[in-house]
């Protein structure tokens, strides 16, 4: 092997990398919060919502789950403007992530709701709650608790998938890596560094989500 | 410059979709084999092996496939191993698929009731016999729906091989867009072709799941 | 060395663009075509080797070369001191004027006029590097992954102004797009060079010889006429 | 005047007519036991009274108000009639106190402080004041069922429906739940309970309904029903020859 | 000489000492019932005898061979001692016949034909010859448990361990399983069974062990233990004052 590794560029490129990390973090934060919220809303529609909305949500979920994120991103950024809807690349990236995570989390949360014993719902009803109140106060939290690990994995997957938003010039971590290597031609070093950063981000995100789960949900008594 | 008719666009995309299919099949089959090996190390191997396989899974599930592809292609080249794009794409996708399948299957094995292990142990079976005759036949059934479901992710994952110059469906989409300036038509077709590839897989995964659940509820 | 490797192999592997008309794009049968492709074929012919065309993007063309996946990069590669530290460049083989383009109704005449505007470029292309140097700080530069992104962003109206090669803009115009990129001002005259790995004097000499011969026997001019519709400029 | 008036109620599941014309009147303060074989329709009847199932024919009037299956009427009905289930159905993510407070706050919009005061009072009434902060998982079955009773009581219902509330309990825990029910009865709460505890039914109830194949087969004071079963079905059910 | 000799066995789960020095000798042909409150360590003891748990102190000797926790010894032990579980643990992907044949073929390398002959014989012995091709899902709980017994018998063990094998059954199915066990006992099989069926223990067993808090609290002939409980704990457990 003749190639000489050289990481001297790292210092000078730190601001670019840090900005990339910031944008990636920001993308996943917004994407996760609104994506899961959208997922909850869709799960509600599929479990209890008005009849006419169900096929709409089902179509949305199927479309998103069966096409690559990259294509969805291109559609939002390059396709929507021809309908007069124009947005910045960051907004488009965020929107794509929300829409994507929304579809996946809808399915995950729905599975959690289906695993809820019917009696829970009936207990809520017999205490005079409306179906929506029973859903919100009685069914949702245990359902989320049940599927929290699956949901967390999906959020991490979406975070890693966000690497392609650099294709529409959103200046995330991958953009930073590509930007740096287009200037210094140190492609391998740059990609190794950014891969390690992604790994660290993924581990951190998983820990954060586990911690959040511990805060949101009561611990089961160990028996 | 050449003019593209709608049929030219469609024909070119479909031709490129062949590569998407081939790449998906290779990744899925290869990933399945590597994933099965990982699974055995992960649940039955020695301490060190368990640790290694866990690290492997962490690494491949914790970094973007995009980066893995890039490093597989150019990284291997750095060490003097000359890999053509299709080989690098296959290697990266197989390794990535294996990590996910191993985890999915581990969940399935662990979902088999503890009593099955104990009953077979009390009949004098050893670890491999328990696995072969009692646990795997049951786990396999549980594993079919999520495995088929994951194949959709593999198909979509092949889109990223465009980064290393492999001309599959997505890459063909951008190339054709660039030659025609019709992003809406081209990406619309690309999305449709992906949907046509993936939807039958998702759907059969759902149907299988329902069928197996019904079978479960019978008792 | 690289030259004898090529001879031994009987093939020369050349990276060409696929998303950069008129230098490299595809025909209706998806075969590569364009200025760079013709140069690649010309060089292959003169080297007496079969040409293996490897399509690349501006993001990955250098790694291809560095990992020895290709012998030459003929991919409208511009030269600058940073790049010269990593790879070697031949004599220029094509003219390339990059400039700033926008629809007619956008009033821009020089770099300073871009203040407060958003400009799209292809990340890592020479116009990216040059534009970054000359424009005021208030200009927002959007760097797309490849030319396809840059052009799509312009055509879909995501950016009003793009920086790219004059010939690229011409190629767009030829297709009668909804938005017409018109030249506002030139950034730099930055001819294209063939890239190869460092310390390959034999290959370098050979390639430079081929370029010089093509220039004098009119072959280069013919390619220029075919794809750029102009004669080769005198300074080349 | 009767508090719960059930008149000629019929209920079908598909082709299966589960209730074939049930009429029962329950006076305020009465404690009615419903007994009968598995599948005779006992649970279905209770669920109809609580509006968890819609009825196909007949009428159910609670405290003078006819039951109609729309959201407003359902809510009004359920505020009057509480229900307790065999499987407790406590909300697993809330503490005992949270379980008792939730519906007050959500349905009645009681302020949190007041809801908590009520919850403490009700948990005290079922002997579980000290378990206010325990999660359902940390409670025994008997304690869980008592929390469920407290939860129903917190809505201040005028009647309680109990569907085999001790059937899922280990034998040693049955007594503590029945003690609570007995006390409620003594305090004058109107109770309609499906039960397999014949001893309890005899001691505590004012009337016993024996259901058989979707009909009220016998009805009367416990002494009569248990000592003088008139039909062979009831005799067989009670195991007397 | 005793067939199973348990000497001063101790077992801890973390800090929790579950078995605090148990000594029991079981003679060939004996039928020993183990009774005791939930959590007293009954299951743990059986699981130790079968090598599903390792012991921390003491020794367990079966038919003269000391138990050691490596694969060869474990296999030898388990060929001598069969175990039947509360939850049946039939292999759901195999028919009743397949369940009985599998371990013979896999562990003992019996040829398929012979294994099938044995399986038919054993299923016949538990009264299920006609269910050879039924899947576990298609059998009632009682039938499943009888298949589990046949499966254990097919390995020709010299002793059987039964852990509450009727507890997961509906009351009407208990009798059919106990009848099979009674027959085994009559035929001279050595049995160690954890059970809550006091009546059965009294009628069938030769000795009763009452466990309390990880110790053998009383041990003796059923008449003695049931009619003359000496300790207050056993008296309380049996519900006599
Ligand atoms: N949701 C339902 N759909 C279809 N059939 C039902 C439904 N609920 C109950 N049934 C049927 O109605 C009949 C009466 O059921 P119900 O639960 O009222 O009986 P029960 O008297 O409460 O019996 P148990 O003592 O076992 O609780 C049964 O045949 C049952 O199968
Ligand atoms: N795998 C384990 N890990 C930790 N503690 C355990 C484990 N298995 C059993 N225990 C503990 O050991 C004690 C005895 O359990 P065991 O199952 O032997 O009781 P048992 O007498 O069989 O009760 P039951 O009648 O409920 O079956 C209990 O306190 C239990 O919590
Ligand atoms: Mg019932
Ligand atoms: Mg036990």
Automatic annotation (TrEMBL), chain A:
It comes from the Bacteria. One of its GO terms (cellular component) is ATP-binding cassette (ABC) transporter complex. Signal peptide: none annotated. This is Polar amino acid transport system permease protein. NCBIfam families: HEQRo_perm_3TM. Residues 21-209 form the ABC transmembrane type-1 domain. It is found in: Cell inner membrane; Cell membrane. GO terms for molecular function: transmembrane transporter activity.
UniProtKB/TrEMBL annotation, chain B:
The keyword Transcription regulation does not apply. GO terms for cellular component: ATP-binding cassette (ABC) transporter complex. Keywords: Cell membrane, Membrane, Transmembrane, Transmembrane helix, Transport. It is a multi-pass membrane protein. One of its GO terms (molecular function) is transmembrane transporter activity. The chain crosses the membrane at residues 20-44, 56-79, 85-105, 184-202. Residues 17-205 form the ABC transmembrane type-1 domain. It is found in: Cell inner membrane; Cell membrane. One of its GO terms (biological process) is amino acid transport. InterPro entries: AA_ABC_transptr_permease_3TM, ArtM/GltK/GlnP/TcyL/YhdX-like, MetI-like, MetI-like_sf. Belongs to the binding-protein-dependent transport system permease family. HisMQ subfamily. This is Polar amino acid transport system permease protein.
Automatic annotation (TrEMBL), chains D, E:
GO terms for molecular function: ABC-type amino acid transporter activity; ATP binding; ATP hydrolysis activity. It comes from the Bacteria. It holds the Pfam family ABC_tran. Residues 4-238 form the ABC transporter domain. Its main location: membrane. It is found in: Cell membrane. The keyword Membrane applies. It is a peripheral membrane protein. One of its GO terms (cellular component) is plasma membrane. Gene3D superfamilies: P-loop containing nucleotide triphosphate hydrolases. The keyword Transport applies. Keywords: Amino-acid transport, ATP-binding, Cell membrane, Membrane, Nucleotide-binding, Transport. Belongs to the ABC transporter superfamily. This is Polar amino acid transport system ATP-binding protein.
């Amino acid at each position: 092997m003749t190639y000489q590794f050289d990481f001297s560029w790292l210092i000078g490129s730190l601001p670019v990398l840090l900005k990339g990390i910031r944008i990636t973090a920001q993308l996943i934060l917004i994407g996760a919060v609104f994506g899961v919220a959208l997922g909850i809303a869709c799960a509600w529609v599929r479990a209890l919502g008005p009849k006419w909305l169900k096929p709409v949500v089902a179509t949305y979920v199927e479309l998103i789950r069966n096409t690559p994120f990259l294509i969805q991103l291109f559609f939002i950024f390059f396709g929507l403007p021809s309908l007069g809807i124009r947005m910045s690349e960051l907004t488009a990236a965020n929107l794509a992530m929300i829409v994507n995570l929304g579809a996946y989390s809808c399915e995950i949360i729905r599975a959690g709701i289906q695993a809820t014993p019917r009696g829970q719902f009936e207990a809520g009803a017999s205490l005079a709650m409306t179906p929506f109140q029973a859903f919100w106060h009685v069914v949702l939290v245990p359902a989320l608790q049940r599927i929290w690990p699956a949901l967390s994995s999906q959020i991490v997957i979406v975070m890693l998938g966000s690497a392609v938003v650099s294709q529409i010039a959103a200046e995330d971590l991958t953009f930073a890596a590509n930007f740096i290597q287009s200037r210094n031609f140190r492609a391998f070093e740059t990609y190794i560094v950014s891969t390690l950063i992604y790994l660290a981000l993924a581990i951190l995100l998983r820990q954060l989500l586990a911690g959040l789960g511990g805060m949101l949900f009561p611990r089961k008594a160990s028996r | 410059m050449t003019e593209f008719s709608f049929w030219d666009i469609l024909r070119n995309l479909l031709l490129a979709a062949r590569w998407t299919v081939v790449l998906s099949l290779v990744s899925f089959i290869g990933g399945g084999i590597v994933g099965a090996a990982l699974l055995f190390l992960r649940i039955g191997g020695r301490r060190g092996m368990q640790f290694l396989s866990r690290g492997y899974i962490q690494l491949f599930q914790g970094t973007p496939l995009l980066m893995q592809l890039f490093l597989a292609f150019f990284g291997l080249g750095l060490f003097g191993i000359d890999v053509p794009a299709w080989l690098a794409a296959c290697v990266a996708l197989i390794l990535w698929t294996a990590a996910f399948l191993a985890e999915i299957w581990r969940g399935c094995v662990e979902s088999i009731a503890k009593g099955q292990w104990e009953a077979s142990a009390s009949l004098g079976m050893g670890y491999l016999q328990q696995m072969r005759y009692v646990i795997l036949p049951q786990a396999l059934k549980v594993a079919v729906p999520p495995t088929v479901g994951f194949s959709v992710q593999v198909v979509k994952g092949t889109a990223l091989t465009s980064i290393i110059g492999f001309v599959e469906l997505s890459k063909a989409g951008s190339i054709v867009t660039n030659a025609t300036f019709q992003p809406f038509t081209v990406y619309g077709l690309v999305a449709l072709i992906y949907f046509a590839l993936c939807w039958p897989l998702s759907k059969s995964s759902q149907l299988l799941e329902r069928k197996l659940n019904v079978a479960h509820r019978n008792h | 060395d690289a030259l004898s490797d090529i001879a031994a192999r009987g093939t020369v592997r050349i990276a060409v663009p696929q998303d950069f008309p008129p230098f490299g794009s595809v025909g209706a049968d998806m075969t590569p075509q364009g200025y760079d492709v013709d140069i690649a074929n010309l060089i292959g012919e003169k080297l007496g080797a079969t040409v293996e065309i490897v399509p690349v993007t501006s993001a990955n063309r250098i790694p291809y070369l560095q990992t020895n996946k290709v012998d030459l990069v003929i991919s409208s590669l511009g030269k600058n001191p940073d790049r010269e530290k990593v790879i070697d460049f031949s004599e220029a083989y094509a003219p390339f004027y990059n400039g700033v383009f926008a629809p007619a109704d956008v009033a821009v005449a020089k770099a300073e006029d871009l203040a407060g505007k958003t400009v799209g470029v292809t990340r890592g292309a020479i116009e990216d590097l040059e534009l970054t140097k000359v424009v005021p700080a208030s200009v927002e530069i959007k760097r797309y992954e490849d030319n396809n992104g840059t052009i799509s962003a312009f055509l879909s109206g995501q950016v009003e102004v793009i920086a790219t090669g004059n010939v690229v803009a011409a190629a767009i115009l030829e297709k009668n797009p909804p938005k017409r990129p018109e030249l506002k001002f030139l950034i730099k005259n930055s001819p294209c060079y063939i890239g190869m790995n460092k310390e390959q004097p034999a290959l370098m000499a050979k390639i430079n010889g081929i370029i010089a011969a093509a220039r004098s026997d009119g072959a280069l001019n013919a390619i220029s006429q075919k794809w750029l519709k102009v004669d080769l400029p005198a300074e080349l | 005047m009767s508090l719960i008036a059930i008149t000629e109620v019929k209920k079908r599941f598909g082709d299966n007519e589960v209730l074939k014309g049930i009429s029962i009147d329950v006076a305020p303060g009465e404690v009615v036991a419903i007994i009968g074989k598995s599948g005779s329709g006992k649970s279905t009847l209770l669920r109809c009274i609580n509006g968890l199932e819609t009825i196909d024919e007949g009428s159910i009037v609670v405290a003078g108000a006819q039951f109609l299956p729309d959201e407003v009427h359902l809510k009004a009905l359920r505020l009057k009639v509480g229900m307790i289930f065999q499987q407790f159905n406590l909300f697993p993510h809330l503490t005992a106190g949270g379980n008792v407070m939730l519906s007050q706050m959500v349905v009645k919009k009681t302020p949190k402080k007041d809801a908590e005061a009520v919850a403490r009072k009700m948990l005290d009434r079922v002997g579980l004041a000290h378990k206010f902060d325990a999660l359902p998982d940390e409670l025994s079955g008997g304690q869980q069922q008592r929390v469920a009773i407290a939860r129903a009581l917190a809505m201040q219902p005028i009647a309680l429906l109990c569907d085999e509330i001790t059937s899922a309990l280990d034998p040693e825990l049955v007594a503590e739940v029945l003690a609570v029910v007995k006390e409620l009865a003594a305090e004058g709460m109107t109770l309609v309970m499906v039960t397999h505890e014949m001893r309890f039914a005899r001691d505590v109830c004012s009337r016993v309904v024996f259901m058989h194949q979707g009909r009220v087969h016998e009805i009367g004071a416990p002494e009569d029903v248990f000592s003088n079963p008139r039909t062979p079905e009831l005799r067989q059910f009670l195991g007397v020859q």
